[in-house]
Each structure stands twice: as C-alpha cells, then as structure tokens.
Design a protein that fits this description.
Elements lengths: L1 H8 L8 H27 L8 H32 L7 H14 L2 H10 L3 H29 L4 H31 L1 H7 L2 H8 L3 H17 L1
Helix pairs in contact: 1-10, 2-3, 2-4, 2-5, 3-5, 3-6, 3-9, 4-6, 5-6, 6-7, 6-8, 7-8, 7-10
Length: 223
C-alpha cells in the first residue's frame, strides 16, 4: 500500500500516458536482463583449476574478485530498482542516462577479467574509475527524479538538491582517494571496493529516505 502511494505521489504524468509507463516497464526489464547477462559473463570468466596447487590458488583469487564485482553489480541493480519504484513513467532523459549507465556497467566483465588475469595497479585504477562513473550516473538519475517527478514544497526540493550535490562531492572525493590508493596498494584496494556496496546496504540512501519520509508524512496528513 505504501509503495502504491509512493508511485502515485511521485508521478506527475497522468494515468493516460501508457507509452511512458510501458517504456518504464520495458526499461526495468532491460536493466534486469542486461545485469543478469553481465553477472553470467563474469562468472564464466573464472578459470577452472587444472589440479595443481598454483591453479587452485588462481581459482580462489578469481572467485574472490568475481564476488567483489558481483556485489557491486547487485547493489547497483538494487539502487536502480528502488529509484524506479518511486515513479510510474520514464522520461526520455532518464532513459538516455539509463542507457549510458548500462553501457558503463557492461564494462564490468572486461575489467573483472582484467583483474583476474593481471592483478596490477592499472587494472585496479580502471576498476575504480568505472565504479565512480556508475555512481555519478546513478546520482544523475536521482537528480532527474527530484526535478521531474517530486511534488513537494520548495524548501524540501531545495534540500534534496543540496543533499544530492553534497553526495556528489563526497563521492568524487572518496573515489579520488580510492583511485590514488589503488596506485600504491592495488592488491589490497580491489577488495576494499567490496565495502562500498555493503555500506550502501547497511546505510540506505539518504535521498531516497528523505523522499519516502516526506511522502509518508504527507500521506498521514491527508488521512
């Protein structure tokens, strides 16, 4: 019931806009399909051990790298699902950003394979760059959501803009630090990226929390 209210609250488009609503559903289905393919490709890149100890050690390391990438991709899928659950329709700008996001996310199998085969600083740095790009694109989607769909007071909207900008700045700073550390400690930093999706799960997104809180507050006032 609360999710239904959120969708009605955050969608400015009338119910007659079946095209936009269908595009949203197809876009979510496309996201699910591409992300499933990405995860499948990544697991297929894990080398099968030949039987000797050295190959088994390489296998264990490859599985560990796969798990890091898996949880990162899974977390992005979770965040996108939360975002699109707040709207009933999709705009053209959202679709364009979503396609760019999927294009960047499709690089994960290549970067993951690179790390499995050559665990060097250049591979880890590029891994961090891809992660930063994905996070920034996710924030752009949040910005479009706030701008085009949120119906709230001007104070609340300005506050959401402020939180979004602040998170972008923090994201750039943290990403720059991680990339810099990856240059000096590549073998350690690849596993440090595993902490990022865990933090997102443990500490839910502040912006989405504000949106839901504002919606539920107004829902109670309406009752």
């Amino acid at each position: 019931m609360e999710e239904t209210h959120l969708q009605e609250k955050f969608s400015k488009a009338p119910k007659t806009e079946k095209g936009s609503r269908q595009l949203r559903e197809r876009m979510m289905a496309l996201n699910d399909g591409i992300i499933a393919i990405i995860i499948t490709i990544m697991i297929l890149e894990v080398p099968v051990p030949s039987g000797d100890v050295a190959s088994y050690i390489r296998f264990i390391k490859a599985v560990a790298i796969f798990l890091v990438s898996f949880f990162i991709v899974a977390n992005f899928w979770y965040e996108l699902s939360r975002l699109y659950s707040l709207v009933q329709v999709a705009t053209k700008k959202m679709m364009i950003v979503n396609f760019i996001f999927l294009a960047a996310l499709s690089m994960m199998p290549i970067i993951t394979k690179w790390l499995m085969n050559y665990h060097n600083r250049l591979a880890v740095i590029n891994y961090g760059v891809i992660y930063m790009i994905l996070d920034l694109l996710e924030m752009v989607l949040f910005y479009l959501l706030i701008r085009d769909f949120i119906e709230c007071s001007s104070w609340m909207k300005n506050h959401l803009y402020k939180v979004t900008r602040l998170r972008m700045i923090v994201l750039l700073i943290v990403s720059a630090i991680l990339i810099l550390l990856s240059y000096y400690f590549p073998r350690v930093m690849i596993y440090a990226y595993l902490a990022l999706p865990i933090i997102d799960f443990v500490f839910p997104d502040r912006i989405t929390h504000l949106l839901e809180r504002d919606s539920f507050k107004e829902m109670k006032e309406d009752v």
